[in-house]
Specification:
Blueprint: H1 13-25, E1 41-44, E2 47-51, H2 64-77, H3 92-105, E3 109-113, H4 116-127, E4 133-137, H5 142-151, E5 154-158, H6 163-172, E6 180-185, H7 197-207, E7 210-214, H8 229-232, E8 241-245, E9 255-259, H9 261-270, H10 272-276, H11 282-297, H12 300-318, E10 335-341, H13 343-355, E11 358-359, E12 361-363, E13 373-378, H14 385-402
Parallel strand pairs: 2-11, 4-5, 4-6, 6-7, 7-8
Antiparallel strand pairs: 1-2, 3-9, 8-9, 10-13, 12-13
Helix pairs in contact: 2-11, 3-11, 4-5, 6-7, 12-14
The structure holds pyridoxal-5'-phosphate (PLP).
Length: 405
């Protein structure tokens, strides 16, 4: 028989207090539950909505070819890899995926991690030590920040996309003996703007810094056949460490690092998520291989994505929404923020939109700066013109009713 403890446990009461605080500020949320497949229109919490919230840029989450690849790999190789990569969990299909990505990106080698988060955190933390320096854009992804902290290197943060500021920081530490790592997101996930990869590469060359780009939101979106921002800027030979994700446009799960053979060999030996966490099930690797084949064969998906993104952005701006970022120019990608300002009102706007049939996530402080709360919209290649127009109409109607427009 289970006996309830009579004394109320209070060890975690500080968490309850913090949750109450979130509720007070109106930024507490419940998880929305998807009841069918990820798609341009789908069902969350029992409601059919036009989906402007996923990272499913190319509609690959439910693509028949990818599904087939996953099923066939499951039938042939089972559901799990059974170990970490370095012990007994490297399957042939893992190697095939890494070779596929390296060839696609035009680099010597590639290592796949369990997620983009693990790729960033595992790489930054293992290639630097406490005598080194990390020069990082202030809006870089959380996984870069965590990796930087784990490395114990000294962290210098430059103002968003401010190349001159990055140079100032590099100059400050130029005479120090430690290595320098210059790091930026290729596409920033909150404003949808593109990092100045080409100009940062020049700086890295000039100051002898290691150059690293996190291309999570650019993988499958920017560059030839979706090769990413580094390809978009023609900088493949100048970026030492290229990170990408398999969890967004690629439609499955995982992250990868591309670079020289030695970089990848080193990560095989030293990156902690690679060494201490089990590798992907074979189905995931097979899905990703099929996705890269699609990118190579069907670039029209990417064209459709950009066509939709341009149209939606133009219409949002024409309707009078604030689609600006922290800097101008604002969004240059399929991510478009609709800035509301106040956190509570933003969350209300997002809830009202949902009730009216549009799913767009509210994002408030501390994810974005205070006063810059927004609902974030993401276009995909699979939204029809009809769905986009319907979404625009709903956004406009709800915003007018709430006094946002
Ligand atoms: C989403 C994202 C990641 C993490 O990728 P996952 O594969 O989802 O773990 C890393 N960096 C950036 C910039 C991202 O947007």
């Amino acid at each position: 028989m289970v006996r309830m403890t009579e004394v109320k446990r209070t060890q975690l009461s500080h968490l309850t207090a913090q949750l109450d605080d979130l509720r007070q500020r109106g930024t507490y949320f419940k998880l929305r539950v998807l009841e069918d497949e990820q798609g341009p229109v789908c069902t969350y919490d029992g409601r059919r909505v036009i989906n402007l919230a996923s990272n499913n840029y190319l509609g690959l989450c439910d693509h028949p070819k990818l599904r087939e690849a996953a099923i066939s790999a499951t039938e042939n190789y089972g559901v799990g890899s059974g170990a970490v990569r370095t012990i007994a969990g490297t399957m042939r299909i893992h190697m095939e995926l890494e070779e596929k990505i390296a060839a696609f990106k035009g680099v010597e080698a590639c290592v796949v991690f369990q997620s983009g988060f693990a790729a960033n955190a595992g790489t930054v933390s293992s290639i630097l030590g406490k005598e080194d320096f990390i020069i990082s854009d202030e809006l870089n992804h959380a996984s870069i920040i965590d990796g930087a902290r784990l490395s114990r290197a000294k962290i210098k943060v430059f103002r968003h996309k401010d190349v001159a500021h990055a140079e100032e920081l590099l100059k400050e530490v130029a005479s120090e003996p430690g290595r320098k790592l210059l790091i930026t997101d290729g596409v920033f996930s909150m404003d949808g703007d593109i990092g100045p990869v080409d100009r940062l590469c020049e700086l890295a060359d000039r100051y002898g810094a290691i150059m690293m780009v996190d291309d999570a939101h650019a993988s499958g979106v920017l560059g030839r056949n979706g090769r990413g921002s580094v390809d978009h800027f023609g900088c493949t030979d100048r970026v030492d460490v290229q990170v990408g994700t398999l969890s967004k446009a690629i439609g499955a799960l995982g992250g990868y690092v591309c670079g020289s053979r030695d970089l990848i060999d080193y990560l095989y030996h030293r990156a902690r998520p690679f060494l201490f966490s089990t590798s992907h099930p074979p189905s995931v690797a097979a899905t990703c291989i099929a996705a890269f084949e699609l990118l190579e064969r069907e670039p029209e998906r990417i064209e459709r994505l950009w066509g939709n993104a341009r149209y939606f952005k133009e219409q949002l701006a024409a309707a009078g929404f604030d689609v600006g970022g922290r800097t101008t120019p604002a969004s240059e990608t399929p991510i478009t923020p609709v800035i509301v300002g106040d956190g509570r009102r933003t969350m209300e706007f997002s809830r009202e939109l949902f009730e009216a049939g549009v799913m767009a996530t509210g994002i408030a402080f501390p994810t974005v700066p205070e006063g810059k709360a927004r609902v974030r919209t993401i276009m995909t290649s699979e939204h029809t013109r009809e769905q986009i127009d319907q979404a625009l109409e709903t956004l406009t109607t709800v915003a007018r009713r709430m006094g946002i427009l």
